[in-house]
Amino acid sequence: MNTDILKKLIGDSGNIVFFGGAGVSTESDIPDFRSSTGLYNSKENFRYPPEKMLSHSFFVSHTGEFYDFYRNRMIYREAKPNNAHYALARLEEEGKLKAVITQNVDGLHQMAGSREVLELHGSVHRNYCMKCHKFYGLDYIMNSTDIPRCECGGLIKPDVVLYEEGLDMEMLNKAISYIKNADMMIVGGTSLTVYPAAGLIQYYMGNKLVLINSSETPYDRSADLVINGKIGEILKQILE
Ligand SMILES: [Zn+2]
Questions:
Q1: What is the DSSP secondary structure assignment for residue 30, as one 8-state letter?
Q2: Does residue 96 fall inside a structural domain?
Q3: Cβ pair 190, 121 in contact under 8 A
Q4: Sheet with 156-160, edge to edge strand ranges
Q5: Structural domain tally of the chain?
Q6: pTM metric for this prediction
């Protein structure tokens, strides 16, 4: 069985890096924006396409509408970590896994106990005043009506990478460094078609590249092991 091979590969490794996409959170009932059942393909009629509503220019020009959409569609406060999150936290605790690199903004890895989490697209749990840089938690955003403002009057922005915005280069470089030094790389819950996922995987130089995804990816042929399935179910098995 492929999970037995995965188990053995993990057993032989001491410097694992995990890179995860939206599929890691779907088992926690957070929809994958780009999947066939995700938001972008939903039959609901939004006034603007979701990509537009989650863009930097829309945030600036239609701040109220941005927050309306953001609060209702981007925040899943009831979501709890799933087996994938817990398995990764345990591998870190055992000293085998060095970092989780994620494209998700939900904070579920930290909730499960992971410590070294590189959030390439930011986090809904961090919000900053654009004027004085005072920090605000998610509660403040959810409890404010209309546009959340700082006590200084400044506009508060979620620390989430919106469309048209660049990634934090320092964090990206840190992620690259973890990947370069890893003896094993597990990629999960991503179809590897969205930037920067596909680019990052090319920095891995070892011979234990494992892809776990519900469907095929363009990198299946370069991987040393491909497992198709739900990542939570698969990672749970390797800990048994
Ligand atoms: Zn302020």
A1: P
A2: yes
A3: no
A4: 135-136, 122-129, 156-160
A5: 1
A6: 0.93
Please tell me whether 34 is known to bind a ligand.
yes
| Residues involved in catalysis | 121
Within a domain: 11: yes
Cα of 136 from ligand 1 centre, angstroms:
10
Centre of ligand 1 to C-alpha 138, Å, is 16
In a domain, 211, yes or no: yes
Task: Check whether 93 has a pLDDT greater than 90.
Answer: yes
Strands across the sheet with 97-102, in order?
Answer: 117-119, 97-102, 16-20, 184-188, 209-213, 225-228
Decide: residue 34, CB within 10 A, 0-12 exposed, 13-18 middle, 19+ buried.
middle
- Give the integer Cα–Cα distance in Å for 164 and 66: 15
User: For the segment 23-38, what is each residue's pLDDT rounded down to a tens digit?
Assistant: 999 999 998 765 545 5
- Whether 66 is covered by a domain: the verdict is no
Could you report the per-residue pLDDT of 36-63, keeping only the tens digit for each?
455 555 556 677 888 899 999 999 999 9
By the 8 A CB rule, do 178 and 201 touch?
no
**Residue 238 structural domain:** 1-29+80-121+167-240
Residue 75 CA to residue 168 CA, distance in Å, equals 22
